[in-house]
Write a structure and sequence with these properties.
Blueprint (H helix, E strand, L loop, with lengths): L26 H27 L7 H5 L1 H12 L4 E7 L5 H10 L40 H11 L4 E7 L6 H12 L4 E7 L8 H4 L5 H7 L5 E4 L3 H13 L4 E6 L21 H10 L3 H8 L13 E5 L1 H14 L3 H7 E5 L3 H4 L1 H7 L4 E3 L4 H11 L6 E7 L7 H9 L4 E6 L34 E3 L4 H11 L5 E5 L5 E4 L19 E4 L5 E5 L3 H14 L4 E5 L8 H8 L3 E9 L5 H10 L5 E7 L9 H5 L4 H9 L3
Parallel strand pairs: 1-2, 2-3, 3-5, 4-5, 7-8, 7-9, 9-10, 10-12, 11-12, 15-16, 15-17, 17-18
Antiparallel strand pairs: 6-13, 14-16
Helix pairs in contact: 1-3, 1-10, 1-11, 3-9, 5-6, 10-11, 12-15, 12-18, 16-17, 19-23
Length: about 625
């Protein structure tokens, strides 16, 4: 980085005091607002694109969009209007808004923005209360904040509470419940919805006909107003009207995504971080030469780590759709339509389902941002013998679906669910996006007619992943297959060849990756295996007797393996799931039931994150050094 000076002078922001009782802007107020909007949008484009140039990803478009309404409401607050001075946001990926506001309010220096999404910078990919100075709430998963804001309004009688909404967030069922409560209690909440007709997977007006925010919110009892968000005078008028009355108001603020950004405006790609060349062109056109220079000189933040016992790269989360396509290709068109439905939750590119949409649109359902409803729809389709629903989203969202999973189980439905972005690896979006409570899916009771057929699978590499999906595709019941955001290498045998290449997958069977030779064992799964393998190889070289088991089926005990482990001097479970709810929290009890008398411990995700990508595993003590340390403690 050539300098630690933020290259856009945010001290140039002009103080604007506005009164919502006044119907129109003066020329001076309008000019000042326009100046501030240009300044703030330039800053957002710059520091989000800077993170992107460093390989940290991020989100530009949403935060960029909402600058006009944020700027006007800040004017109301500066003018003394009774408003809680927090811009709650139900779209956590728009966190750039919160970080910029933190700087403008003096809570942190502008130079902190140069480290957006970096490890231990305090500026993760979603807002987290008490982690970042000036950030007053935590928000991650879409649709969760309106209900929360209702409570804030109840606690702050006499003041308005602002919620920045989005057309994507409003798809979630939480918002429907929150809207009804806000109306019934006549809460002084102001819902400012950025209706840009863009979500990750496309344009809602195209893939979800009939979805209309004005009619939806009217049905809940609100009287929403619709306004063009880039018409500053019109936007001011409706905002002023909303803040005059102490009752719930919803504004539908229509605009193209990323207005004025050539190469991004109106595109779903603007939801993500801007490409460097797009940001450079935007900044050059607005005279931000120093920002352009810094952006062009940014260097990627790549992991320097290497691992023994593994090699290559497999992208399991993307491969899922390709593997499903192979299976669908083997069916007749009529059979496919009769037997299978594939439900996307606006994350098709992140979970591999875009491959299915392109190859087999006849079975593909663009379900929008409605995880709970879509899981139940998949279960309903798969509630008859010979049919199955396929469902995919991020592992963090499994927690949202637990009730629907229970109902699917009680209906003996057939669902193949792919939950990507498991654990914490490569998760700059941080704690709210950690997929660490996935064992919640295994909460079923034994039915009267037989055994619970729920199965949780976390294959170790691309070879086992493909073999697993193909093997369990036609199995009955609920099958959960997990993958990580980060690629994973192939696990190598002691002969240096991929251990799982060409090997059939056997549900419920564990794999010995390295023999303990009479010593203790590490049990791991998923992305933790190759890290544990590195630790085991290094310790074996030092003379420590320790072996490694890959447990790809998480919720079934392999009795042959358990007998072997029960006679060992020690067992360590290493996982990226939550130490309170993961495999390790139940594994020790299972060992005791089988006569285990050795030493036991389990390590996993146990503290909130601090941003970054590859650093996340080491921060939780799940890198080879951390795992080796836990092994030594059991010797």
């Amino acid at each position: 980085m050539p300098s630690e000076t933020f290259p856009i002078d945010l001290s140039a922001l002009k103080t604007v005091k506005l009164d919502p009782k006044v119907d129109t802007l003066t020329d001076d107020q309008r000019a000042a607002l326009q100046h501030n909007i240009r300044l703030c949008r330039g800053a957002i484009v710059f520091f989000t694109a800077l993170a992107g140039a460093k390989g940290l990803s991020g989100h530009t478009g949403g935060a960029y969009d909402t600058v006009p309404e944020v700027t006007i409401v800040r004017g109301f607050i500066a003018g003394g209007a009774p408003i809680v001075p927090v811009f709650f946001d139900e779209a956590g990926h728009r966190v750039a808004t919160q970080y910029l506001l933190s700087v403008l309010e003096g809570a942190m220096p502008a130079e902190k923005l140069l480290h957006y999404r970096e490890f231990d910078s305090g500026l993760p990919g979603h807002p987290e209360k008490l982690l970042t100075p000036g950030v007053h709430f935590s928000s991650g998963r879409l649709g969760h904040m309106w209900a929360f804001v209702n409570g804030v309004a109840m606690a702050n009688a006499g003041k308005a509470v602002v919620l920045l909404g989005s057309d994507g967030s409003q798809m979630e069922g939480d918002d429907a419940e929150a809207a009804r409560l806000a109306v019934a209690q006549q809460l002084n909440v102001k819902i400012l919805v950025d209706d840009n007709n863009v979500t990750i997977a496309g344009h809602p007006q195209e893939y979800m006909p009939g979805y209309d925010l004005t009619r939806t919110l009217t049905g809940h009892g609100l009287n929403p107003e619709t306004v063009m968000g880039e018409d500053l005078d019109e936007l001011y008028v409706v905002l002023a009207r909303a803040f005059r009355e102490a009752k719930p108001h919803a504004l539908i603020i229509k605009r193209h995504m990323a207005p004025g950004i050539e190469g991004a405006e109106g595109s779903p790609h603007a939801h993500e971080v801007l490409k460097t060349e797009v940001a450079v062109k935007y900044l050059e056109q607005r005279g931000h030469a120093a920002a352009v220079e810094m952006l062009k000189s940014a260097k990627g933040d790549k992991s320097p780590l290497t691992y023994e016992g593994s090699s290559g790269v497999g992208k399991n989360r993307d491969d899922f759709g390709k593997i499903v396509n192979e299976i669908l290709d083997g069916m007749s068109p009529a059979d496919r339509v009769a037997r299978v439905r594939v439900f996307d939750n606006d994350l098709e590119g992140s979970c591999g389902l875009h491959h299915v949409r392109k190859a087999h649109p006849e079975v593909f359902v663009r379900g929008g941002i409605m995880e709970r409803g879509n899981f139940s729809a998949a279960a309903g389709f798969g509630s008859e013998k010979g049919k199955q629903g396929i469902f995919a989203t991020f592992s963090a969202f499994l927690e949202m679906c637990v009730s629907e999973i229970t109902m699917a189980r009680l209906n003996f439905s057939n669902v193949l669910a792919h939950f990507s972005h498991s654990g914490v690896d490569d998760m700059a979006d941080n704690t709210c996006h950690y997929g660490v409570n996935s064992m919640f899916a295994d909460g079923g009771l034994t039915p009267g007619h037989g055994e619970d057929e729920t199965r949780l699978y976390f294959p170790v590499d691309q070879h086992q992943f493909a073999a697993c999906v193909k093997r369990v595709f036609d199995d009955p019941g609920l099958r959960f297959v997990f993958s990580t955001r980060a690629p994973v290498p192939d696990i190598l045998g002691e002969d240096g060849k991929p251990l799982f290449q060409g090997r059939a997958f056997a549900p419920g069977k564990d794999d010995v990756v390295r023999d303990a030779k009479g010593g203790g064992w590490v049990v791991a799964f998923g992305e933790t295996v190759y890290r544990a393998l590195d630790a085991v190889i290094r310790l074996q070289r030092e003379g420590v007797k320790v072996g490694l088991v890959n447990k790809a089926t998480l919720n079934v005990w392999d009795e042959e393996t358990m007998k072997m482990l029960a006679g060992a001097p020690f067992v360590l479970v290493a996982e990226a799931f939550n130490v309170k709810t993961g495999l390790g929290s139940r594994f020790g009890s299972a060992l005791l039931q089988r006569g285990f008398k050795g030493r036991y411990d389990h390590v996993g995700t146990h503290r909130e994150g601090v941003g970054g990508l590859w650093q996340q595993m080491g921060y939780q003590g799940l890198d080879p050094e951390g795992i080796a340390k836990a092994i030594r403690a059991l010797l």
